[in-house]
Amino acid sequence: MSGRGQVSFRNIARTYGNFAALKGVDFDIREGEFFALLGPSGSGKSTTLRILAGLDAPTAGQVLIDGQDVTAVDARDRDIAMVFQSYALYPHMTVAQNIAFPLEMSGHSKAEIGPAVHDAARKVKIEHLLDRKPGQLSGGQQQRVALARAIVRKAKLFLLDEPLSNLDAKLRLETRAELKKLQRALGVTAVYVTHDQEEAMTLADRMAVFMGGEIQQIGTPAEVFAKPNSIDIAGFIGNPPMNLIPARYVDGDVTIGGHRLKTDSTLTGERDVVVGLRPGALRAASDGVPARVDLIEDLGDTAILDLDCAGTLLRMRVSDIEIPNEGDTIKVTARPQDVHLFDPATKARL
Amino acid sequence: MTTTDIASAPVGGGYDRLLARRERRFASALLAPAFVALTATTTFPLLYLVWTSAHRVDLAMPFTNGYVGLENYAVLLADDRFWSSLLVSLVYTGSTVVLQVVIGLALALLVMDMKRGQGWFRLIAILPVVLSPAVVGMIWRTFMLAPEFGIIDFLAINAGLGSQNWLGEPKLAMLSVIAIHTWQWTPFAFMVLLASLASLPDDIYEAARLDRASAWQRFYRITLPLLRPAIVMVIIMRTMVALTAFAAIFTVTAGGPGTATEILNLYAYRKSFTELSFGYGSALAVALLIVTVLISGVLFALRRAK
Ligand SMILES: Nc1ncnc2c1ncn2[C@@H]1O[C@H](COP(=O)(O)OP(=O)(O)O)[C@@H](O)[C@H]1O
Ligand SMILES: [Mg+2]
């Protein structure tokens, strides 16, 4: 009940006009957890975060923070800090004034504010920028100012809405690692919105996968990666995502391109299924399914092969020593435990 | 021709400079006619005004006409009516500009929060601006302030204040002309500030809410500083116009009763065209010009500061 930074969403819905942006969302975030909201663009992640922050009100449902119903509590009184995707820095204030603002507003004295601002600036390595205005900073520097402003006040909850999406690839990787360290060091509960599954996988303790205004799966990144519980998630998680192939299932085996593949399923009988195979779980084997190499995307240490397997496209990840030539025919298979089965009608995992 | 120019131009920045010079020359050629026209219509009359102010040009007593040097200015400095009209001008300008900005800003803030009807509000608000100040003066004199029948007087009577001589009593007359100018020009401030408000990003207000700023703190610490350039611009533009206002006051009170609403501009007009003292009238006009330039100079300096 007590704790600091526990969050519960109880059946939260949000409609705009007659468009349902959120269709009943439930989740619990534990104290000190790094929780990611992952999903494609438009799936309702930002709406969820804004409802948690109190910037938007749900049409139905309850938001609980530390066991208290805060659904009707104003954003000001929720003790939440947030990093906006746009950074939302105050353009007329210097970096130091930006970082000091939340402290001033909570009535801290000048004597407390000065050291706190320097401390926050040091944590995100922008001490040398304190006298500049946001307009004189690069995107990466602005992002750090936004971070510093969010951590300077020791808020209960730390929300981040796609904080890295406006940074270039190299900076994104660096900042990602720093974010994780920062969150660990502060021990604060963080809720992190992203459409980038790699970010969610690397940062999150647990994540909720959003699709079309609903949460499709909640779990650790490893759980979601290992056992995606629907076709949609299987097609979203992983880079490249799982191969999804319609096939016929008979007593533990599936037939793809006229070849049988063993699964570890114990279902009996015969039915249509969708088979999910991770590109990295495919391997070459002399008794495998023959497939022609159509295209090779060489990524340096690994390569992605586009295979034509009796008319269906299969993508396969191979290490740099095993790269065949385009036009070759290779034989591929997968271990029974790597074959995922989904119901084509309900899209659910079998 | 171009090729030889390129060849003969020094390498690197030299060619850029050549282009820049050519562009400047072309721009000068384009601007020349406008420049000449402007000089003919502004600088020349201005010089003529200064020239006239150094003369005695009195149509009532033409035999005294002639060059008098700074005599008109000496008279002016000792002229109580000049100082009183200058004071009226400053009070009129100061109060109308402050009222326009304060009311305009308040309206803009209100309208920004309106979910519906913003368009209508803007349309109605713009109406006073497009009316001629002389027409506005007439409207106020007849429909609004006429004893018993005017809307304002009617309201005053119903509010228990009794019928007032709005334009006949010195203090009320001053209040009335200030109210009229404010009524006509507040929409301008409103429109400029509304446009400026609408261009402020929403996200910083959300950030401020999460940073626990109250509504007043959001206004005072964020909105006001961000609107500052627009506010200063409105102040500068409206100050210049108010200092040289004429038509509305002329049609409503003509400076009266007595000299209660006689702004400097009106005094210069009366001297020149009622009393036909063109020399002294010109000196008054030059004085007004100097005051206007000084005040706008100060305002522009304030704008640049910080
Ligand atoms: N203020 C709004 N008015 C109307 N529709 C909105 C509004 N905010 C969000 N939406 C819609 O709700 C859906 C979810 O939006 P959002 O939560 O921002 O998605 P995400 O952050 O996952 O990309 C989108 O289809 C979006 O168009
Ligand atoms: Mg979003």
From TrEMBL, chain A:
Where, if anywhere, are coiled coils annotated? Answer: none
Bilayer topology annotation: Peripheral membrane protein
Q: Where in the cell is it found?
A: Cell inner membrane
Listed Pfam families: ABC_tran (PF00005), TOBE_2 (PF08402)
**Keywords attached to this entry:** ATP-binding, Nucleotide-binding, Transport
Residue ranges occupied by any ABC transporter domain in the UniProt entry: 7-237
Per the UniProt entry, what is one GO biological process?
A: carbohydrate transport
- Primary location class: membrane
Q: Record's SMART domains?
A: AAA
Kindly give the InterPro entries that the UniProt entry links to this protein. Answer: AAA+_ATPase, ABC_transporter-like_ATP-bd, ABC_transporter-like_CS, ABC_transpr_MalK-like, ABC_transpr_MalK/UgpC-like, Mo/tungstate-bd_C_term_dom, NA-bd_OB-fold, P-loop_NTPase
Xref: PROSITE patterns: ABC_TRANSPORTER_1, ABC_TRANSPORTER_2
Q: Name one GO molecular function term.
A: ATP hydrolysis activity
- Which cellular components does GO assign to this protein? ATP-binding cassette (ABC) transporter complex, substrate-binding subunit-containing
User: Sorted alphabetically, which PANTHER family does this protein's record hold?
Assistant: MALTODEXTRIN IMPORT ATP-BINDING PROTEIN MSMX, OSMOPROTECTIVE COMPOUNDS UPTAKE ATP-BINDING PROTEIN GGTA
- Family to which the UniProt record says this protein belongs: Belongs to the ABC transporter superfamily.
Its function? Involved in beta-(1-->2)glucan export. Transmembrane domains (TMD) form a pore in the inner membrane and the ATP-binding domain (NBD) is responsible for energy generation.
Protein name (Swiss-Prot/TrEMBL): ABC transporter ATP-binding protein
From TrEMBL, chain B:
Could you tell me which InterPro entries the record lists for this protein?
MetI-like, MetI-like_sf
Q: What is its main location?
A: membrane
Q: Name one GO biological process term.
A: transmembrane transport
- Looking at the UniProt entry, the stretches that span the membrane are 26-51, 86-112, 119-140, 185-205, 278-302
What Gene Ontology cellular component terms go with this record? plasma membrane
Q: Which membrane topology term applies here?
A: Multi-pass membrane protein
Q: Name one matching Pfam family.
A: BPD_transp_1
Subcellular localization(s) per the UniProt record: Cell membrane
The chain positions of domain ABC transmembrane type-1 read 86-299
The entry's keywords: Cell membrane, Membrane, Transmembrane, Transmembrane helix, Transport
Concerning its family, UniProt says:
Belongs to the binding-protein-dependent transport system permease family.
Q: What name does the UniProt record give this protein?
A: Sugar ABC transporter permease
The organism encoding this protein is Rhodopseudomonas palustris
